[in-house]
Design brief:
Elements (H helix, E strand, L loop, with lengths): L9 E6 L3 H12 L4 E7 L2 H10 L4 E4 L8 H8 L7 E6 L5 H6 L4 E4 L4 H19 L6 E6 L2 E6 L5 E5 L2 E5 L4 E4 L3 H8 L4 E5 L2 E4 L5 E5 L2 E6 L2 E4 L2 H12 L2
Parallel strand pairs: 1-2, 1-3, 3-4, 4-5
Antiparallel strand pairs: 6-7, 8-9, 8-12, 9-10, 11-12, 13-14, 14-15
Length: about 240
């Protein structure tokens, strides 16, 4: 496995209660030029003890483990001051919604293929680059009753298409701008905006919940529930499960 070291190499923690699987994944990660250090733990409790003294950039963790499972470990890690990214590695796809809600970078299915692992590392690097560039928050000029105001991209929770225009929704207001949704989708992809419907773009950092009822998905942002179209439901599931 190869990779270009365009950003600081990653410090990785692999957590899996099955020692052979843990060792195999650690071996593959050490072969990647984008990775500098790989630690291992065979339980979530051991991982938390290690994390108390060692900072890591990303945790590759199994989900079904005795004691604390991988989802619970991720919830604890999400409260860290320096929050590590999460990649779930599992033989089951029934926790994909949990992974989405925890903003996991990827969801790998066992047995892990080297090419899929390389793609997961690429996503981790890209997400890290986007986070480091968060201070370069784009500012959008909007008109309101003849007054020009400025809205930061990070304030925008979701966007709705309205013909050649797009309506930007913040926590308390909405603003109409002359810009096609497709242009914003491309421009803001690295900032975590994802298309869930032909007319809707959402900021993953503002998604509070993903719901699945009778095979139909929706996302909740604050008090607003937005449907995920059938076409984008499949795209969403593929993204979550890494298929």
């Amino acid at each position: 496995m190869t990779g270009s070291v365009a950003h600081p190499p990653l410090r990785v923690l692999v957590v899996d209660d099955e020692a052979p699987a843990c060792a195999d994944l650690a071996f593959l990660l050490r072969e990647d030029a984008r990775v500098s250090d790989v630690r291992t733990a065979t339980s979530a409790s051991e991982a938390l003890r290690l994390l108390a003294d060692t900072a890591v950039d990303v945790i590759f963790c199994d989900i079904k483990m005795p004691d604390l499972d991988g989802v619970e470990l991720a919830r604890v890690a999400s409260r860290f001051a320096q929050r590590p990214q999460i990649v779930f590695v599992t033989a089951y796809d029934d926790r994909a919604v949990d992974a989405f809600e925890l903003q996991a970078v990827d969801y790998l299915m066992k047995p892990v293929r080297p090419d899929r692992l390389a793609e997961a590392v690429r996503r981790v690097v890209a997400a890290g680059a986007a986070a480091h560039g968060a201070d370069e928050d784009e500012t959008i000029a909007v008109e309101l009753a003849g007054i020009t105001r400025f809205v930061r991209r990070s304030q925008i929770r979701y966007v709705e298409a309205q013909g050649d225009y797009a309506r930007l929704h913040t926590d308390t207001e909405s603003h109409l701008v002359r810009c096609p949704l497709a242009d914003l989708e491309q421009r803001w992809a690295a900032a975590g905006f994802v298309r869930i419907h032909r007319s809707t773009l959402v900021a993953l950092t503002h998604v509070d919940e993903v719901r699945a009822v009778d095979g139909r998905y929706s996302v909740r942002i604050g008090r607003v529930e937005l449907p995920v179209s059938r076409r984008h439901t499949r795209d969403l599931r593929d993204r979550l499960t890494g298929r």
